[in-house]
Amino acid sequence: MTAYAKLRELQITLPVAEGPVAAFVPTVRTGNLLFVSGHIAKRDGEPWVGKLGVQMSTEEGKLAARNAAIDLLATLHHELHDLERVKRIVKMLCLVSSSPDFTEQHLVANGASELLQEVFGARGKHARSSFGVAQLPTGSCVEIELVLELAD
Amino acid sequence: MTAYAKLRELQITLPVAEGPVAAFVPTVRTGNLLFVSGHIAKRDGEPWVGKLGVQMSTEEGKLAARNAAIDLLATLHHELHDLERVKRIVKMLCLVSSSPDFTEQHLVANGASELLQEVFGARGKHARSSFGVAQLPTGSCVEIELVLELAD
Amino acid sequence: MTAYAKLRELQITLPVAEGPVAAFVPTVRTGNLLFVSGHIAKRDGEPWVGKLGVQMSTEEGKLAARNAAIDLLATLHHELHDLERVKRIVKMLCLVSSSPDFTEQHLVANGASELLQEVFGARGKHARSSFGVAQLPTGSCVEIELVLELAD
To answer: Which of A128, B143, C74, C77 is at a distance of 20 to 30 A from A122, taking alpha carbons?
Structure first.
């Protein structure tokens, strides 16, 4: 099943990819690697403001991470024109805005990791680091960056 | 001297590699690069819970980083079957759970960097970033990820 | 216009590259990729100590990020002997020492991103993640690492 068929099955419509809000570009390719800029989590098109361990639950954080992964897919669709060009999700970095005592960053990050594996199957299985940061740009609760291998 | 001979000399026995506790895989290879997931520091097989600048000293943090490096070696042994396949440790990211005023993350990270250089010699010399995070998964004090170049 | 001509136009004199203060090396090359260690921001040759959202403004943070980028260029000049060997700045990671409520890390990071684009033109356009950390080595306010593609 293609990534697009899986997205339809999951009833996910990719949003229009928005460009970065600052002085960088969404992706850079070098050889067969694609480095994807950090994407903050949004809700209804606006930054999903909040901090885990303060006013957000792990379940909400997991949903925010899933939203960030959907925006990452929108960026990949826009940049690659075809998600089937993704040979492998290599590495995820998942940053979780956290109080000093919130310790479930790995469960929050699963919201993104599980979606990528649903959409891409075996080629969605990735290495990962997740950790709690003091704050994120625009106050968003989650930020995710990726390294991919392209098929061509 | 091989990495294994050096480990014997250092009287280090590699533990059995444990799989990730969340929705990701320990390593992903792309070309000759191997991306290794973040490994949290453990003590006696359990997460080494603590925060630098609160209840842990720099020396304890350095030992925790060394423990994480030993677990990374265990993962590499499990995934590659032979540590001699490591051509170069390319890059380390060392995350240190820190109070807002602890500023010795680089000394903590040395616990891992120095071990990798002892075990691998010149091919253990790596680029590195280390910094203080608000918290880490399961409350561990240190988390380390690696990028390697493989010989074959 | 070469990177050196642009630096002269900007009236930037590269400092002498200083080696790392801990157990790592400034850069590691693998294939055509160059991984560059995190460089902390300095002022007058000393760590620029401070935290955004406490005693530093966004404008000061942006200047600190620009300083770190100049030191990164000094390291690249020292390691590569010729900045023209840089084919592309692929990826920047910009760490900003932040209070729990400072949310303009992306504007701070622009200080480095904009300089690299001034110096390198189109090959200076990069993917990026920026976020707020609890603290940085030696108390510096900003730390930046890079991944580059080399031309040869």
So the answer is: B143
